[in-house]
Amino acid sequence: MLTRDGKEYLIPNELLITNQVINWTFSDNQVRLRLPVGVTYESDLRLALELMEKAAEKCPRVMKDPEPAARIIGFGDSSVDLELRVWIRDSDKGIGGVRHDVLLAIWDSFHENGVGMPFPQRDVLLKQDSELKVTLDDKRR
User: Fold this and answer.
1) What is the pLDDT of residues 98-141, one digit of tens each?
2) How far apart are the first and last CA of the chain?
3) CA angle 30-80-118, nearest 5°?
4) Closest to 57 in 3D by CA, of 92, 91, 84
5) The whole model's pTM is what?
């Protein structure tokens, strides 16, 4: 089997007989893509979910029925974890392009509407009785 990245996989007959084989497009080219997206805890989650769905609707390869669905899937260390689920009917054309188009549309929409994209942040607690000496240098002098 040759992948889109030019890698070839050799699958021994034994594995085909004894293991499960997943074929995304055996009987139908429709597939669902799951696109993870994180937003800051300060973000309006209802707005973020709505913007994600609208961004997907702008992409011509995303199916209207079933319609795109954005969901909250967890609370991470640095973000509220969301997922956009979209269906495409032409997976034989690849999924990288549609994934790119949808994520870029989400990025643009979030920036236009003030929805924050997270980045890892850590708080450092310095205790008074610590032997660690800290000096703050104010370069504005």
Assistant:
1) 999 999 999 999 999 999 999 877 777 877 787 877 777 777 65
2) 65
3) 105
4) 84
5) 0.72
Asked if the structure places residue 52 within a domain, the reply is yes
Strands (E), the chain: 31-39, 69-75, 80-88
Inter-residue contact 83 to 70 (CB < 8 Å): yes
Give the phi and the psi of residue 114 in degrees, each rounded to 5. Answer: 70, 25
- Tell me: the pLDDT tens digits for 71-92? 999 999 889 999 999 999 988 8
**Cα-based distances in Å from 85 to 2, 12, 72, 129, 138:** 27, 34, 11, 51, 48
Answer yes or no: are the C-beta atoms of 94 and 4 closer than 8 Å.
Answer: yes
Q: How far is CA 113 from the centre of its chain?
A: 19
- Which CATH number do you get for residue 49? 3.30.70.100
Domain count, the chain: 1
| Alpha-carbon dihedral angle through residues 63, 31, 84, 55, given to the nearest 10 degrees | -30
